[in-house]
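Notes, p. 3: input format for complexes.
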Amino acid sequence: MALMTVALAKGRTSNSSIKLLQSAGFHFDDIEDNTRKLVFYDKERKVKLISVKAVDVPTYVEKGAADIGIVGKDNILEAQSDLYELLDLNFGQCKFVVAGLNSSLQQRSRLTVASKYPVVAQNHFQRKGIPIETIKLNGSVELAPLIGMADVIVDIVETGRTLRENGLTVLEELDHISTRLIVNKASFATKTDTIEDFVTKLKKALEG
Ligand code: PRP
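Output follows (208 residues plus PRP):
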């Protein structure tokens, strides 16, 4: 098996991803919860793991800096990158929603939408034929409707706690999100056996 580079999203799903890789037989000795290291090799030196911001994983894979990426569907949809999505890993389950105050969608001909996902927001409202202005934020998006900066937000909801604690409600439910395995198109053509072997091992680990 040739060496393969896997870009792993940092953050809330990284522990589940590492556990899955371990169940599939890939062990990384020096991965600890609070490590600042960014590059890891498995014991057999078949996989080089690079730890990157979730939002950047599709870019690393599209550009060929990584053969494979493990990242949420939210970031895949937002990036619109040219790559293959091969496997649903089923963890990191959440959903895209439009949320706001109860009155947020009433009597407005044009909406201001705050989001970490402006492309997803734009696409959703375009499909509905509603013109919007997007405001790109990088976090604490729930604040925007509370302070009058936006009418609504498009964001991911997992437990619903952040919306609840800020007095916001779900106004529309959009796509279901989970962690996916993505592959660089050229790598899939040149390292087909290696990638298929890797995917098969992960599938078996998921079933087991
Ligand atoms: C995400 C998301 C919501 C929250 C939803 O933010 O943007 O704010 O989690 O989770 P919940 O439904 O379980 O409350 P994240 O925690 O990544 O923080 P951020 O605001 O810094 O982006």
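The chain has a mean pLDDT of 95.
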